[in-house]
Amino acid sequence: MKYSIRRQFAGIFIGLMAAAILFCWFLNSTFLQKYYISNKKAVLLELHGDLVEAVGDNRINTEEFELILQQKCSKYNLALLVLDANSQVVEDSGGGADFLKQQLLQHLFALSSEQYEIMDHGDGYIIAQVKDTRAQMEYIEIWGVLPGGYFFIIRSALEGIRDSVQIANRFLAFVGIFACVLSGILIWYVSRRITNPILQLADISKRMSHLDFTARYVGTSRNEIGLLGENINRLSDTLEQTISELKTANNELTRDIQKKEEIDQVRREFLANVSHELKTPIALIQGYAEGLLEDVNSDPESRKFYCDVIVDEAGKMNNMVKKLLTLNQLESGNDVVSMERFDIAALVNNYLQSADLLAKQNGISVRMEKTEPVYVWGDEFKVEEVVMNYFSNAVNHCDGDKVIEVRITRDDSRARVSVFNTGAPIPEESLAHLWEKFYKVDKARTREYGGSGVGLSIVKAIMESMNQKYGVINYKNGVAFWFELELVKEGIGEEKEKTEKNS
Fold first, then answer.
1. For residue range 292-312, what is the model confidence (pLDDT) as tens digits?
2. Coil, helix or strand at residue 113
3. Contact 179, 11 (CB under 8 A)
4. How far is CA 269 from CA 274, 433, 435, in A?
5. Residue 346 has pLDDT above 90, yes or no
6. 98 and 63 share a domain?
7. Can you tell me the distance from the alpha carbon of 159 to that of 188, in angstroms, rounded to the nearest whole number?
8. Does one domain contain both 315 and 283?
9. In this predicted model, what pLDDT tens digit does every residue of 107-126 receive, in sequence order?
10. Residue 371 DSSP symbol
């Protein structure tokens, strides 16, 4: 864009810059000298504190402390002198020691002829602004007595701070005047170029509000306002087409209404299934609670049985609600799938270790051959939930030899995880319905262990969200549920493993 509004408004910011320069001029005149002197004072007090500490630690005569003093004096342009009780030099910043000694003695015995103004004083020190009438220079000095009978003086020249302030103010004044004049001219020019097209667009919008779509923007500017005018012209040209599109949208709306009715039907079926699943535990809880209330069985053992039934049924309801919430989140698409690289073998092993107690409580032997790391792509947390649902399903349906066998196999591009449990095969007519919500092969057995018929539906939703395969295989002595994940390309997983080991 050749003439951008942003460039035009640069003139306005130039005016703001002039105001900032004036503000800096004010701050410079008012506070710079005070700020400079305040910093000098802080430096002198800091060095005085170092001297007090050095005397207390008996470091005043060490080379290490002398080096520290020399560095600070050089950094802050200070002159320093420390005398002992015999007026012998203990520390000297270098150069002018005789003059500083004379100055110190004059201050200590009130013999100084120089003019000075005391700025601050404390335990064993005085800070003053001193004017050397002979050299026509101003200094900030701190002198006094240190513990152990040492005398000290530290001097710092103000280096013509007033002259520096005046020079800076004159420069800021010249720059400010030039910036204000230039910004005034630019703002006047820019305001004319901006307001005229805006007024034209305002008139066009007023006519469009009265359904007069024949209005056209005729400006020639190539900035954002020009683009806005062209878009308004296009809007008028496309109104007829928009009417046609509205009719099309009306047809789409009709189809959406039909789809909504279908969704409502699915929702009603879902509510009916949930109501059916909750009806039995709610009835049991109500019945046993009424029994406790009416004191049908007064002995402690019966009351405990009633309470155990209520707690068990409430737990089953809570578990089903949690699974339904998880399934709803997956099916609605609100759950974000994070495809990451991870070791599926480590994930399975870790879960089997955590589930070892559950297996032992049910008298089940869990087998899994040790395998090297198998790196795959997938959402690690969701894959773990798939493994958990498969394993839980295997525990609840394990019969016969009471064995659960977990295997990880792979080909060139995919890894397959299968969970096999001994027991009766699934009837062929039920295989196609296993992944449906609330479907139960053996309702009585499912009721016994508190199943909701939702676990395999969660597996389906998770695997489809990652666009991966899953399924079930019947054997003579049991059933194996499986899922597949995409293998990480060779070399990537090994590189990651080496990095983790090295770290």
1. 777 666 677 777 777 877 776
2. coil
3. no
4. 9, 16, 16
5. yes
6. yes
7. 45
8. yes
9. 887 766 566 788 888 888 99
10. -
- Alpha-carbon distance of 83 to 153, in angstroms, equals 9
pLDDT in tens, 76-96: 888 898 998 888 888 888 767
Dist. CA 413–CA 14, nearest whole Å = 63
Give the C-alpha separation, 89 to 71, whole Å.
Answer: 19
Rounded to 5°, the CA angle 329-332-335 comes to 50
**CA 466, 331, 455: angle at the middle one, nearest 5?**
85
pLDDT in tens, 44-66: 999 999 999 998 888 888 888 88
Specify the pLDDT at position 31: 75
Separation between Cα atoms, residue 322 and residue 89, nearest integer Å: 84
Q: Apex CA 361: angle with CA 356 and CA 367, to 5°?
A: 40
Say whether pLDDT at 469 is over 80: yes
Tell me the Ramachandran region of residue 440: left when phi exceeds 0, alpha when psi lies from -120 to 50, beta otherwise.
beta
Name residues whose C-beta falls within 8 Å of residue 446's C-beta, 6 or more positions apart in sequence. Answer: 396, 440, 453
Q: In 3D, which of 284, 354, 291, 294 has the Cα closest to residue 315? A: 284
Judgement on whether residues 352 and 327 belong to the same structural domain of the protein:
no
Structural domain span for residue 367: 336-502
CB-CB contact of 177 with 169 (8 Å): no
Q: Cβ distance 214 to 35 under 8 Å?
A: no
The 8-class DSSP code of residue 223 comes to S
Q: Which residues contact 69 (CB under 8 A, 6 or more apart)?
A: 47, 50, 80, 91, 93
The mean pLDDT value for 2-26 works out to 66
- Residue 490, φ and ψ in degrees, nearest 5: -55, 130
Q: How confident is the model at residue 470 (pLDDT cuts 50, 70, 90)?
A: very high
364 and 429, same domain (yes or no): yes
Token representation of residue 339? 């495809």
Judge if 256 and 395 occupy the same domain. no
Six-digit token string for 387: 């493994």
User: Of 190, 197, 194, 239, whose CA–CA distance to 218 is shortest?
Assistant: 197
What's the mean per-residue pLDDT of the chain?
Answer: 78
Q: What is the mean pLDDT of residues 214-218?
A: 74
Q: Which two tokens stand for residue 11?
A: 């003139």
Interatomic CA distance for residues 483 and 407, integer angstroms? 11
Give the domain-ending residue among 331, 364, 392.
Answer: 331
Question: DSSP string covering 200-225, please?
Answer: HHHHHHHHHHTT-TT--------SHH
Percent of the chain with pLDDT over 90: 15
pLDDT score of 204: 79
